[in-house]
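Reviewers of the previous submission asked for a worked example of the structure-prediction workflow described in the proposal, so we include one complete record here. The input consisted solely of the amino acid sequence. No template or homolog information was supplied to the procedure at any stage.
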Amino acid sequence: MQAVNYVSRTLLNAVVGVPSSVVYAAKQAGTAAVGVVGSVVSVVTAGTFKGLNTIADYTQDAPHVLPTIYKAIARVVNPNFTVTQEQGRAGLLTDRIARPIIEKAKAQAESEAVTSRHVVSRALFVAGTVASVATRVADLAIGVVAAAVSIVPCFARVQAVNTLAVRQLSSLGGIVHDVCVGFRGIVNPQQFVSVKEV
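From that input alone, the workflow returned the following structure tokens.
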């Protein structure tokens, strides 16, 4: 009976899960594309329109495209496929190198000192964007290897490898998001200043 249940779940994932995941990934890619267009317009208008900046933030969907497709394929191999939820995590290298630089750039944009607000924050956005592209490419390479190991020899049964693959594969779309954020920050770092409560 377990074999029949396993086969039926595998077929269901192959027939329904993969196509629906591809459609969902296409929706995420479309939303990210709208964010890229919003980012370009935000850069052209120097980030002065809050509504455009909000649309530009849609690039946050870009990192989820490739992991969504990987998860669908993994569920065909193993219907009991699981990952540890790690919301808001970038790749291993990106979290340690590029993210802190970009966060520091955003913090400097809120500084009281004019030099920090206008010069240091922009320099940090440049450094963060360059570091992000380099670390995201390395993270993506790790993700491709982890996904291959997860699917082929492990049959998507090792949760740690599955989680690593999902986390690292987000780097492909993460490059798009980070480059858009970087260019927006270089043009106008103040668009990332949080609204203070009065």
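The mean pLDDT is 89. We consider this example representative of the routine output the project will generate in years two and three.
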